[in-house]
Design goal:
Length: 304
Amino acid sequence: MAIHQLLLLASLLGTGACTMVRIQMSSSLRTWTANGIFEGGRSLPATGYIFYGGDYCQASSPSSDRSIVVFATPDNCSFDTKIRNAENDNASAIVFLFDREFSSYERAIKYISNTTVSVIFISQPQKEILKFIDTSRLGGGYATAMEINQPDSQSRKFLLVSAVISLVIFVVGGCYGAWYYHDQIEVMNDREKLQTSEECAIETTIEKIPSRALMDSSEKVIEDYNTCAVCFENYKLFEIISSLPCSHIFHKSCLHPWLTERRSCPLCKMDILKHYGLPAASSEESIINIPLDDTVSYLESMPI
């Protein structure tokens, strides 16, 4: 149910602007019920034999001393004319049958407060009523016993409370959904900022690792570490190598991607980035609280 419908229902029930009624009609075969709106006139309940008056633009004067309830269509003449005809026929109520939504007709009756009959609107095709008309005639129509009862105050209170609760749930749910969406956006933004800051700090740190070219095949590096532990290829003259604080040597082109992913020495697992001043990988809060400018300044002050 949309929020404007909930507000309208709560308003109508709270102010008593409309009263829902249940119409019950019984025949020799079955019982028929329908919900309608009590528009005004004589207070409910109303009881009588059904009288189908068609457009009911003229009083029918049914030949019976028993109370009747007139069913009529809303066309061909005014509502006031039909209500006056119901009064002349001594009806206890008049029920207007609408084949479609009747909201546009609800305020069309001018003198409803002065009438002596109960005025009710229902949205029900005429053929549904005619199915339950009894075989015994009453004037110009057919008759069967029926009763119209107004729901008690407890039912109205229940409907009002239900409408208010539904409205509160709708509003609270909408507010929570908006807050949750905003919170998730903030979390995603924080993670992106954290990742960008960490990646930048790692890249700057890696660039500070000492590197040089192999210029002589007799170098001790080639003698002690003839193979790079990352790519498993032998060192060659004029290749660029990087030396870690743990004294292990690797190709620069192999070591830098490795440290970006794993931070530690491929051989001894020493946390190289932590050695150069970055916090441990598991400490997200430390990474967040370290200003990037301070990290860069610290690294630039280190000797190469």
